[in-house]
Amino acid sequence: MAWLKRNLLLVVGGVVALALLGFAGYFLYTKYSEDQAVTEQLNQSTTDLKTLVNRDPHPGTDKVDNIGAAKAEHKKLQASIGQIKRYFQIPSTNQPTSRDFRRMLDTAIAALQSGAERSGVKLSEDYWFSFNAQKASTAFSTNIVGTLAAQLMDVYDLCNILFDSRIVSLEKVKRVSAGQDDGGGGSSLTSMVGASDDYVDAKAATNQWAVVMPYEVTFQAFSSELADVLEGLIRSRQCFVVKNLTVERADAEPAIDPTTGLPSGTSSTETQPAFNPYARYGIRPGMPMMRGMSPEMMRRYGMGAPMAPPPTAPKPSRPGVLLEEKALRFTLSINSVRLKPSPGK
Fold first, then answer.
1. Where does residue 75 rank: exposed (0-12), middle (13-18), buried (19+ CB within 10 A)?
2. How many CA atoms lie within 13 A of 46 on its CB side?
3. Hey, how many other C-beta atoms are within 10 angstroms of the C-beta on 36?
4. Separation of alpha carbons 92 and 294, rounded Å
5. Is 340 strand, coil or helix?
6. Are 240 and 162 in contact (CB under 8 A)?
7. Alpha-carbon torsion (95, 150, 198, 184), positive or negative
8. What is the separation, in whole angstroms, between the first and last Cα of the chain?
9. Which among 45, 122, 203, 232 is most buried, taking Cβ atoms within 10 Å?
10. Considering the domain 98-262+326-339, what is its CATH architecture?
11. What number of other Cβ atoms are within 10 A of residue 122's Cβ?
């Protein structure tokens, strides 16, 4: 104890020195860990820099700023996306009821019929624009009412584009059958003929983002009016994609429907000519018979062949007319692209 008293300052100094050495060791340990972390970050940054320098395309030099060019391209891409968005309107998540769709249908059909009259477009009498099956219905299945409402909006937009282009006549608008409860789901011959008039033989395509709905529109117009129709489809707020275009003479015979064997648009209830077993011999009902042979048979064997009429001069055309344009029949196959409602909304 006497030694401690005599060397108190030395003892206190030693204790303080030991405390300082412990604190210094702890400080060195913590800073060493931080140094290791900073060293790892530096090594990672060095590796990234070497990767960027050796990458093709190069990030740039003093004369070539590839990073700035990439940022400019990103801005152009965002602007392009903004322009495309206006063709894909955000759909409503509200499911229409039967009463809502009935009101929408009556309003749209009346507006289309009056619009055709104002534009001078010929329509079939009491034409319902592919919704003839819903003409007298007041209750609709909840499974198809949403699809019918979307199709009604598409048909309304398409017909307004046609009317604004001042086409000559609208012959048919065909859409995809909305389901078994729609008119196109029947299996009878009458339903098949009705399906050929109002429904297109195709199915809607869908994915997680959008629904692609096919349509077919047949109308008579001139080439300049067709150009107006195509321009109207491009300028439309709804995304319409023309998949196919068929052109034929307006006075051409209608195509034969493969489902019924009848001309397109002909009802199966129309009176068909009776079978004539003598048609192969040139004998038709009501034909006068001469000596038991038909005129065709007599001409075949040179008996009583009538004299050929003298040739007549062709009818002169109107003076000064070199080319007279006539209306053509156009059939457009169009896809409508509609976004799906967001599942989170």
1. exposed
2. 6
3. 10
4. 71
5. coil
6. no
7. negative
8. 85
9. 232
10. 2-Layer Sandwich (3.30)
11. 14
pLDDT band of residue 237 (cuts 50, 70, 90) is confident
Structure token digits, residue 69: 């060019």
Coil, strand or helix: which one is 170?
A: strand
Q: Is the peptide bond before 57 cis (omega within 30 degrees of 0)?
A: yes
User: 189-223 pLDDT, tens per residue?
Assistant: 434 444 458 999 989 998 888 899 999 999 999 99
> So what's the pLDDT on residue 268?
47
- Residue 342 has a pLDDT of 64
Cβ neighbours, 10 Å, residue 104: 16
Range with top average pLDDT, 10-19, 46-55, 280-289, 324-333: 324-333
- Indicate the helix (H) or strand (E) that contains 145: helix 145-164
- Are the C-beta atoms of residues 297 and 282 closer than 8 Å to each other? yes
**Residue holding tokens 């039967």?**
98
CB neighbours (10 Å) of residue 53? 9
* CA contacts within 13 A on the Cβ side of 209: 3
Structure tokens at 288: 């006068």
Contacts of 140 by beta carbon, 8 Å cutoff, 6+ apart: 98, 101, 102, 134, 148, 181
Alpha carbons within 13 angstroms on the beta-carbon side of residue 250 total 14
Tally of helices (H runs) and strands (E runs) in the chain: 8, 5
Instruction: Name the nearest CA neighbour of 265 among 275, 283, 249, 253.
Output: 253
Cα–Cα distance for residue pair 227/162, rounded to 1 Å: 11
Q: Is the C-alpha dihedral spanning 178, 181, 187, 189 positive or negative?
A: negative
As beta bridge partners, residue 332 has 217, 245
Is residue 161 left, alpha or beta, with left meaning phi > 0 and alpha meaning psi from -120 to 50? Answer: alpha
Residue given tokens 């062709």 in the structure block = 314
Tokens of 3: 């030694």
Query: Which amino acid, residue 192?
Result: M
